[in-house]
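#lab-general

N.A. 3:47 PM
ok so I finally got the sequence cleaned up, no stray characters, all 207 residues accounted for. can someone with queue access submit it? mine expired

B.Y. 3:52 PM
send it over

N.A. 3:53 PM
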Amino acid sequence: MSQLPEFLFDGPADAAVTVVLAHGAGAPMDSPFMVAFAEGLAARGLRVARFEFPYMTQRRATGKKRQPDRAPVLEATWLNVIDHLGANKLVIGGKSMGGRIASMVADAAGVRGLVCLGYPFHPPGKPEKTRTAHLAELRTPTLILQGTRDSLGNAEAVAGYTLSPAIRLHWLEDGDHGFKPRKASGRTEAGNWAEAIEALADFTRGL
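B.Y. 4:20 PM
back already:
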C-alpha cells in the first residue's frame, strides 16, 4: 500500500460529509483555486480534506518540478486516502487530473459521490484522445463542473460524448479550465468559483 499523504482539513470535524479534493497536474493542494474551494465548502458546513500525490510532495520537498506519477501510483494514493477516511461518508474528486483519477476509482471504492472541477476530457491539443470510456459506465453519483470554453472539453465537444446518467454537468459560463471567464463576458473568476462552490455544496446535500 502506498504511503498515506498528509492532509489539510477545513470545516467542522463532525460534518456528515467530507469532500476530499486532489490537486491538478501542475499546482499543489494550497493553490489559490484549491484554497478557495476548500474554504468555500467549509463555510457551507462541509468538512474538506486536501492531499498531494507523491510527485507533488517530492516537489514541495526539493523545489524541483516533477512530472505526475504514473496512473497506478495516483490511483493507489486515492484508494489509500479513501480507506483511511472511510468511503461511506466521502465525496471524492478534485481539480482536473485529481478529479479524473478519482473518477477511475470511485465505483470500486464505494464512495458516496464524485466531483470533478474541470474534467480533462482529452489531453491538451489532442481532442481525438478522449478520456471518457469509463464515464459511460460510471455508477457513482457525479457532478462535473466545467467551463463552457474549457480547452480540455468545451460545451460543444462534451455534448457529443456518451456519459453515464449518474453524471450531472454544471456549466460555468465563459469559463476556461480553471473557470476563468474573459473580461468581455461581464463575468468574473471569483463569480464563477462562487457559483461552482454553491453547486458542489448543493450536490452533496442531495446524496
